[in-house]
Amino acid sequence: MKYIKTYKSIKEPQVGDYVLFYLNPKIGNEELRTFFNANIAQVIKIDKIENYPYQEPNPTISILYEYVPPGIIDQFDRKNFNISLPKNAIVACSKNKEDLEPYIIANKYNIWNILN
């Protein structure tokens, strides 16, 4: 049986970690939100905030997906399948991809909110 290892979760993702995003229903189209909420990505770059007093302290994270469906490919870099998203949209992160699979299963059965 799979379970969520909350005691080992790291709040700050590092380059090379796997992350799972949740997009607000007000952002993007339905197909894009469904894709982000159901797929695990890998962090390839974390942008630093240079002007912290003048901007919100929420850097963007460049993430990489193994496959992107043709319907939403125009939202991504077509060469690398990567995209930049705000850091506060991360639901979970882990060094191991398998640790995030219970979140995908919870989302599938609409029990996403009890995991946070």
Features:
single chain; 116 residues; alpha+beta; SH3 type barrels; five-stranded antiparallel β-sheet; 15% helix; 22% strand
Describe the structure.
With 116 residues, the protein is an alpha+beta fold. It has one domain (6-115): SH3 type barrels (Roll). The chain is 15% helix and 22% strand. It is built from two helices and five strands; from the N terminus they run βαββββα. The protein has helices spanning 30-38, 101-108; strands spanning 18-21, 41-46, 60-64, 82-86, 90-94.
Outline the secondary-structure elements.
Elements: E1 18-21, H1 30-38, E2 41-46, E3 60-64, E4 82-86, E5 90-94, H2 101-108
Antiparallel strand pairs: 1-2, 1-5, 2-3, 3-4
Provide the CATH topology.
Answer: SH3 type barrels
Q: How is the largest sheet built, in terms of strand order?
A: 4-3-2-1-5
User: What's the overall average pLDDT, rounded?
Assistant: 77
Rg of Cα set: 14 Å
The domain count comes to 1
Number of helices: 2
- Which class best fits the helix and strand makeup? alpha+beta
> Can you summarize the main beta sheet?
5 strands, antiparallel
CATH class: Mainly Beta
List how many beta strands DSSP finds.
5
Q: Enumerate the spans where pLDDT stays under 50 for 5 or more consecutive residues.
A: none
The best one-word shape is: globular
Helix content: 10-25%
What portion of the residues fall into strands of 2 or more residues? 15-25%
